[in-house]
């Protein structure tokens, strides 16, 4: 069992393959955080708790233990109001209006396996021996509030997951003002905090900053995880980099408002926290009710950021993502969005699909504009029936025309939205999120359906399911194109209005659970104006995400590099689009657009029928190459070699789990005159084996490639790139 308990010392030691996490329950019943990092032996770890008597500004709760102050005790789930002045993990309002509670250890249980989280996405086990779970039960005597802290150790993945369940075992109504998923205190603040931040069309750029006294955090108040901040932070120890040093990553399995960050206190200890955003949040907990927080996934790596990313990738690919497509290679697709926008008919679609088939592409995806009267973005969201003026013979006919070409068929939806200009809105004007008497702010001419309502959930499940049952559809792109405003629900009473945003997420998850399990043969890809909801919560239901609306190859280097810090490459949609690029106007070669898009779930998003014969030959070669390497790209180990955030050149590579094959991508943004001769080193190969480079047939030692490196390619012209395919010589 990977969780040891020493009753005498009141010590819990959670051990994954290379990681330890240690908790001690103090004599007064507070769960203290003692350690998280490289694996430790044994149970003599109580001495890790060092306390020191402080001035009265950090008061002691026990007169006979002056060194024990809640303000300096490293805590697993700190409260507020009785002398810990740092960021609390939870806060509850009592009927008398006060917010002071005092949680103390009551009991614990240790079991193999991992219980599911009611109504929420979470990592899972397939058999009980894959993980062990500790539940620490804490209780506030005065109110009866009980908090169950859950810790699951995924031994083989070096990951620990955490969540909290707050139960009202008292007789009065309680109001939850905050309920984090994770909180823990590091003894020092010698870290850099890494975050993934950006905007629409430049999502998940890597930003780092040195920790400073006070609060540093990222959060979303947009009703979705957002383009702007991702629910992830990592702490890098002094000197840690891509390949070396201790890195601590935490990621929230949630798609709504979140907060995550670090508070550095007066003694330079660093409190790491993550959970639902307490901003504009309030949850009524009636006697007997419970509230489950989302799950936070924690990965420690002693091998730098790269090691951390590979642990997240492995865990998410096999124990977060579910369903038929979890272990299947994904099809190469062509999507008509940037080819036609709203302006298409069945013949046009068939001609793109036919050309795709000739080039070896496997799936055609019909994007926005096939339903209601949707000739532009001002209308019809919610009216999920086929637009007969564009597709007079209906969807079934179009699907069969595409299927006859031996292509699979995929379809776009934006089910969470409603256009004011729609039949649905005319019938149900109160079905959207809104506040009585206030303006309903539109974005892209649309409002958001109130998914906290079960009648709205039922409508979405039925209308989407009816379409999916009407034709042999094998892929769905589930889009969502705005953030929440006027967050209110017509059905919730006043005292529950501030539950709406979280209830929306629970409603969305319930809808996704129903639809994705009813159609297991369909590959679902989530999307939110590109990567506005690229998070672990969505990956639980849909194994891939449209990474960004920005398809420019140069922009994509940063976007895909940043995304790979947490999320597996098999979850990133990446397509070749037309030039000049529609988002940034840049002209890059078809070769470079292909080489960058090959590093993800590959596809094309342009009018294939406009290609010249020469371009078609290039596309055929790209498609063939992807078919040859996609098992590496989607399921191999990913190594970042050169960062686009640090220089002109980007390189990354994919290595098969048995180290017998590798695929390397190298891209250079601007050409330098008369550049120096340089080398770049590969990673993850077997130093004792030899590898043949397909292109030239040259055989290199794995040691040579990793320690001496390959000569940096010499390019002529900007936005150039090159790929390398290696196979071990047996
Ligand atoms: C936003 C998505 O990110 C695009 O790929 C496309 O599907 C449009 N929506 C369609 O409206």
UniProtKB/TrEMBL annotation:
Q: Enumerate the spans annotated as Glycosyl hydrolase family 36 N-terminal domain.
A: 29-286
Q: Record keywords: Hydrolase included?
A: yes
Q: Name one GO molecular function term.
A: alpha-galactosidase activity
What SUPFAM superfamilies is this protein classified in?
(Trans)glycosidases
> What InterPro entries does its record include?
Aldolase_TIM (IPR013785), Alpga-gal_N_sf (IPR038417), Alpha-glycosidase_related (IPR050985), GH (IPR017853), Glyco_hydro_27/36_CS (IPR000111), Glyco_hydro_36 (IPR002252), Glyco_hydro_36_C (IPR031705), Glyco_hydro_36_N (IPR031704)
PROSITE patterns, from UniProt?
ALPHA_GALACTOSIDASE
Which amino acids does the record list as binding substrate?
Answer: 200, 367-368, 444, 477-481, 527, 549
What does the record give as the active site? 479 (nucleophile), 549 (proton donor)
Report which reactions are catalysed by this protein: Hydrolysis of terminal, non-reducing alpha-D-galactose residues in alpha-D-galactosides, including galactose oligosaccharides, galactomannans and galactolipids
Gene Ontology BP annotations: carbohydrate catabolic process
Where does the record place the Glycosyl hydrolase family 36 C-terminal domain? 650-726
| Keywords, alphabetical | Glycosidase, Hydrolase
Protein EC: 3.2.1.22
The entry assigns this protein to a family as follows:
Belongs to the glycosyl hydrolase 36 family.
Q: What is this protein called?
A: Alpha-galactosidase
Please tell me the species this chain comes from.
Answer: Paenibacillus prosopidis
Taxon lineage? Bacteria, Bacillati, Bacillota, Bacilli, Bacillales
């Amino acid at each position: 069992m990977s969780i040891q308990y020493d009753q005498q010392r009141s010590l819990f030691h959670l051990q994954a393959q290379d990681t330890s996490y240690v908790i001690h329950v103090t004599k007064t019943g507070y769960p203290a955080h003692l350690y998280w990092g490289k694996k430790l032996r044994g149970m003599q770890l109580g001495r890790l708790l060092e306390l020191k008597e402080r001035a009265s500004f950090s008061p002691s709760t026990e007169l006979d233990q002056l060194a024990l102050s809640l303000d300096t005790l490293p805590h697993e789930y700190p409260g507020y109001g009785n002398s810990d002045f740092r960021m609390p993990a939870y806060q509850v309002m009592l009927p008398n209006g006060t917010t002071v509670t005092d949680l103390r250890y009551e009991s614990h249980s240790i079991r193999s396996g991992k219980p599911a989280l009611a109504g929420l996405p979470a990592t899972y086990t397939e058999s009980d021996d894959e993980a062990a779970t500790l539940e620490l039960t804490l209780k506030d005597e005065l109110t009866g509030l009980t908090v169950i802290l859950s810790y699951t150790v995924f031994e083989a993945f070096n990951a620990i997951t955490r969540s909290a369940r707050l139960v009202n075992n008292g007789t009065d109504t309680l109001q939850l003002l905050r309920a984090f998923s994770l909180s823990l205190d590091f003894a020092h603040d010698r870290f850099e905090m890494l975050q993934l931040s950006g905007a629409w069309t430049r999502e998940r750029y890597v930003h780092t900053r040195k920790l400073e006294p006070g609060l540093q955090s990222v959060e979303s108040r947009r009703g979705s995880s957002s383009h702007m901040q991702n629910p992830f932070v990592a702490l890098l120890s002094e000197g840690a980099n891509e390949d070396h040093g201790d890195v601590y990553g935490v990621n929230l399995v949630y798609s709504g408002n979140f907060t995550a960050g670090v508070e550095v206190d007066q003694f330079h200890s660093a409190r790491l926290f993550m959970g639902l955003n307490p901003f504009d949040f309030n949850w009524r907990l009636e006697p007997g009710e419970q509230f489950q927080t989302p799950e936070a996934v924690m990965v420690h790596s002693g091998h730098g950021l790269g090691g951390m990313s590979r642990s997240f990738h492995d865990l998410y690919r096999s124990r977060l993502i579910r369903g038929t497509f979890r272990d299947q290679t994904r099809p190469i697709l062509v999507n008509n969005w940037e080819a036609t926008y709203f302006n298409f008919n069945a013949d046009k679609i068939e001609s793109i699909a036919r050309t795709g088939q000739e080039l070896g592409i496997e799936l055609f995806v019909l994007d926005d504009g096939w339903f209601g009267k949707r000739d532009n973005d001002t209308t019809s969201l919610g009216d999920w029936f086929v637009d007969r003026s564009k597709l007079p013979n209906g969807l079934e006919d179009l699907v069969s025309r595409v299927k006859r070409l031996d292509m699979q068929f995929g379809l776009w939806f934006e089910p969470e939205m409603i256009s004011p200009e729609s039949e649905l809105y005319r019938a149900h004007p109160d079905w959207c999120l809104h506040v009585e008497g206030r303006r309903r702010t539109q974005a892209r001419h649309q409002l958001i359906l109130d998914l906290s309502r079960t009648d709205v959930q039922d409508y979405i499940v039925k209308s989407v399911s009816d379409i999916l049952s009407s034709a042999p559809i094998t892929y769905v792109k589930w889009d969502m194109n705005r953030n929440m405003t006027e967050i209110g629900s017509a059905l919730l009473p006043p005292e529950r209005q501030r539950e709406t945003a979280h209830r929306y997420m629970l409603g969305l998850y319930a809808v996704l659970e129903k639809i994705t399990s009813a159609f297991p043969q369909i590959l679902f890809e989530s999307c939110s104006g590109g990567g506005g909801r690229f998070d672990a919560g969505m990956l639980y239901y849909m194994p891939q995400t449209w990474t960004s609306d920005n398809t420019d190859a140069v922009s994509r280097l940063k976007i895909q590099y940043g995304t790979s810090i947490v999320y597996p490459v098999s979850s990133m949609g990446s397509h070749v689009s037309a030039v000049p690029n529609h988002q940034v106007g840049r002209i890059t070669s078809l070769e470079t657009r292909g080489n960058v898009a090959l590093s993800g779930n590959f596809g094309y998003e342009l009018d294939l029928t406009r290609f010249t014969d020469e371009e078609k030959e290039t596309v055929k070669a790209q498609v063939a190459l992807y078919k040859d390497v996609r098992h590496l790209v989607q399921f191999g180990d990913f190594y970042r070699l050169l960062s686009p955030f640090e220089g002109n050149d980007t390189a990354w590579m994919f290595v098969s789990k048995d180290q017998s094959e590798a695929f390397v991508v190298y891209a250079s943004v601007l050409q330098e005159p008369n550049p120096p001769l340089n080398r770049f080193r590969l990673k993850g190969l077997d130093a004792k084996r030899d590898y043949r480079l397909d292109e030239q047939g040259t055989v290199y030692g794995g040691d040579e490639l990793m320690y001496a490196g390959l000569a940096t390619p010499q390019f002529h012209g900007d936005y150039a790139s090159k790929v390398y395919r290696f196979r071990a010589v047996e």
